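Forum: Protein Structure Q&A
Topic: Joint prediction for protein chains with partners

I've read a bunch of threads here and the consensus seems to be that you should model interacting components together rather than docking separate models afterwards. I'd like to see that in practice. Below is the full input, 1000 residues plus whatever partners are listed. Could one of the regulars post the assembled result?
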Amino acid sequence: MTATRSWLRERSELGICALLVVLGVLVLTDALRIPTDFAQRGPVGPKAVPILVGSLLLVVAVLLARDVLRGGRGEAEGGEDVDLSEPADWRTVLLLCGAFLANAALIGVVGFPISGAILFWGAAYALGSRAFVRDPLIAAGLSILTFVVFNNLLGVPLPGGPLMEVF
Amino acid sequence: MEQLLDGFATALTPTHLLFAAIGVLLGTAIGVLPGIGPAMAVALLLPVTYGMEPTGAFIMFAGIYYGGMFGGSTTSILLNTPGESAAVVTAFEGNPMARKGRGAQALAAAAIGHFTGGIIGTILIVLLAPFVAKHAVDIGAPDLFAIMVLAFIAVTSVLGSSRIRGVASLLIGLTLGLVGLDEMTGQQRLTFGSLHLADGIDVVVVAVALFAVGEALWVAAHLRRKPFDPIPVGRPWLSGADLKRTWKPWLRGPVIGFPFGAIPAGGAEIPTFLSYVTEKRLSKHKDEFGKGAIEGVAGPESTASASAAGTLVTMLTLGLPTTATAAVMLAAFQTYGIQPGPLLFQREAGLVWALIASLFIGLTLLLVLNLPLAPLWAKLLRIPRPYLYAGILFFASVGAYAVNADIFDLLLMFVIGLLGFGMRRYGLPVLPAIIGVILGPAAEQQMRRSLQLSDGSLVGLVNSPMAVIVYVVVLLIVFFPLIRKFLPKPAPPTTPAPEREKVDA
Amino acid sequence: MSVKVWVAVATAVLAVLLVPPLLTPGADSGETSQVRTLRVLVPNQPGGGYDITARTAAKAMEDADLLRNAEVFNLPGAGGTVGLGRTVGERGNGKLIMSMGLGVVGAVYTNKSPNSLLDTTPIARLIEEPDIVVVSKDSPYTSLQQLVDAWKANPGTVTVGGGSAPGGPDHMAPMLMAKAVGLQPKNVNYIQYDGGGELLASVLGGKVAFGVSGVGEYRDQIKAGTLRVLAVTSGKRVEGIDAPTLKESGVDVEFANWRGIVAPPGITQTDRDKLVDLLERMHKTPQWAEALQRNGWTDAFAPGDQFKTFLENENKRVATVLKDLGLA
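Posted by a regular:
Agreed with the consensus. Here's the joint model:
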C-alpha cells in the first residue's frame, strides 16, 4: 500500500497527464456535439480545429506519461521569493484561495469596499503579515481609494455596500 | 513638410502643450489602473474633452492614447499584471527584471522603446501615409494566415527546456482559445451554455490569471520563511552595457510593429510576440531570456508603440479602425463631425497635421515625464512581500471585476490561476499557453476566411504573392538545419536575419 | 488583543462602510415629473453602435435639462445578450434602461439566450440606419441587376462580406435579399468581419465580391469615389447617396438597422409612462436633431406600444431567416 503511494507520489505529474486527457475528451465531445444541420460554407467547419486540438491533447498526454514513467520530471519553477527546499505549505495556499474567493462571494452582498479590504487583509495575513494595527487600516484605505477612483472619478460602477442608499 | 511645420506651430502653443501634458499624465495614470486598457481610457476620458475645440481635444487624445499604452506596460513589469493585450509580452522579461532589482532599467527600456517606436512610427506616418492607404487593403486573409503559421513556427523557441511540456502548455492555451461562439457560423464551443463564455476568454484575463494569480499561489506554497531582503532597487539608470544591448531592439521594433498596426486585423499581440522571438534569436544573451533579458522588454515595447502609430495611419487615411482603441478614437472624431477617410487630409489638413505634430510632442512628453519616474515606480517593489502579493491579487481582482461587474470573471480568473499554479509545480512553461490563446483563434479565423473566400478551394490559402513569400520563409526555417548538413562549410550563425526582413516586407 | 488593534479594526470597518456612501451623490428621492437619475445599460463595447446611441441620447437629455444625471455603463458580451439578461433580471426597476437594436434580436437566437427581448418593456425606437450594398470602384458590377445575376448563377464564388455576426443586421440584409431573388440563404457565402471597418478594407481590396454594411463609416469613401454603392436597403433613397433602393432595382426587400430603448420587465405603468414621455421630449430637443444630423442617422421615433408591435414583427422576421440557416 505504502509502496504504491510513494510510487504515485514520485510520479504525481501523471496528474497533469490526467488533466490533459480530461481536457482532450472534453474538447472532443464538445466538438462532436456541434450540430451539422446549419448553413456552412467552406470545407472547414467549426468542428475541425477543436477535433485537431482535442486529439493532440490526448497524444501529448500519452507522450508526457511515457516521459514521466521513464523518469522525466518537470522542473518546478524557482524564483526570488520561492524556496523549493521546503515542502509545499498548503495552509497558506488555502488561506490565500479563501481570501480570493471571499472577495468573489461577498462583493455582490456587502459591496466592494468591504470585500476588497477582506481580500487584501486576508491575503496579507495568509502570507505571514501580522501587523494587526497597520494591516486593516491599509486594507481599508486601499479599498476605499480604489472605489473612489473607479466609481466616483471614472464612472466605472462598483457596488458600494449596504449603506449606499441610506445617505 | 511645410504643413507639418504649421502643425508644430499649432501644437506648440502653450494651451495645446498643456493639453498634451494633461493627456499623457491622465493616460498613464488610467492605463496603470487594472482592467482599464487604452480603449477604455480613451472612452472614459471622452467626456473631459466635450466643449473643447477639436484640435485641442485630439492633441489631448493623442497623449491619452500613448500614455494609456505605456501605463499598461508599467503594471506588466512591476506586478506581472498586463494592463492590456499589447503589454502581455512585456511581462515575459520585464517582471523577472523587476524581481532582480532591475525594475528601473526595465521601465526605462520600456519608456525609451516606446518613445523610439512611436517616433519612428510617426515619421513613417508622415512619409508613408498615402502608400499605406493604398496597400493596406491588399493584405487579406491568406496573407494573415501565412503569418500566423510563421508565428506558430516561432513558438518552438519559447517551449522551454522540455519540449513535450511546452507543447502541453501550448495546447492548454489553444483549448482556452477555443472557448466561445464560433465566429463564422455562430455555433457554441466549450461554452457549456453560459453566455459569459460566448465571447471567449480575453487574453488579458488569461495572462493576468496565469502570471499574477498563479504566481501568488505558487509563492504562497513555497514562501521563503527567512526574513525577506527587500528587492534591491539598484542603479536607477541604464548602464552602458544595457544601452549596447537595447539600441538595436529599439530600432528593430518599428520594422515589425508598424506594418502590423497598419493592416486590418493586425493588432499588437502577434507583432510583439514576433519581436520577442526575434530578439531572443538575435541576442548574445540567450540564456538570460526568461530570467530578465532587457532586449525582451525593449523590442516588444518599441513594436507595440510603432504598431499604435500604424493603426493611426489606417484610421486617418481610410477611416478604418484596426484596434478597439482606434474604434473609440474614430467615434470621437465623429462626435466632432469629422469623418476620417480618404478626404480627411484635404478637408481637415490643419487638424491632421496638428495631430501628427502632437504625436511627436506627446511621445517626447511621455519620455520626459516617465523616465525620472521609473526609479520611483521601481521602489514600489520594496514594500513587504505580504503586501506586494496581496496587492497583486487585489489589483488583478479589481481589473477582472471592474470591466463587466460580474463575479463570473473572478471565478474564471481563479480557476485559470489554479491552472497556472499546477503548471508552475510541474514545470509547464506559462508562455506557450499565452501564445496559444493569442494565436489559436486568430489563425483559425483567417484560415477559414481564406477558404471561404475561395469557395472551399485550397488554392485560396496560397493565392497571394505575400502568402507565398511567407511560406517560403517558413520552409526555409524548418528545413534549414537539413540543408546546412549538405553544405560544404557550416554557414555563419546569422541565419534569422532574412526571416525577419521578409516577414515585414 | 490590545486596545490599539480593536481601535484599528473598528476604524477600518467604519471607514469602508461609511466613506463610499458619503462620497457618492445622494440617490433619487421625491416625486417630481422630472426624472432625476437614470442608469443606461449599454450591451456592447465603448465606441460600438449602442454605445454611441446611448451616450448621445443621454447627453441630449442632460443638455436639455430633462434629466439631472444619466449614468451610462457598458456590460458587453454575447452580442448584447449578457446585458439583456441583466435588464430582464432587474424586474421592476424603473430607473434602468437599455440601449439596443436589431443585432440583439438575432443574438438572442444565435447565443441561445434564455431571455428574450419580448420579456422587456419596450420604451421607444429612436433611429434607423439603412444598409448599403457596396462594391469597390474596380468591381465588374455596376448595377444591382448585374450583381444579382452573377450571384444567382454562382452563389459560392460571389462572396458577401458583412460586419456583423450571424443574426446581425449586415447578415440579415443579404439573406433577405437572397430569399427575394430566389436563392437559398444556405447557399449564400457570407463572410463575417469584425465590424464595418475590417469589412471596408476587404471591400476596397476586392477580397469579397460585395459588402453589406451601415452607411456610417463609408460616406467618405463613397464621396471620394473609391466605393460604388449599388443599392440602399431602405424603402426610401438616402440623402447624399446616389443609389436606388432595392425595390427600385427589382429586389423586393425593405430593410434597415434600427436602435431603440427598452426597460426591465414588470415596471409600473407610471414608471413606463415617465420613461416614454422622457424619450418623447428628448426626441423633440434641438440637441437630438443636431445629433441625428451629425451621425447621419434617420429619425425613426416610435414610442411605447408602436415599438412593441414593431419589435414583435422584427423578432419573427429574424427568426424565420435564422431557422432557414439552422441557427434558430
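Residues 490-505 of chain B have pLDDT under 50 and may be disordered.
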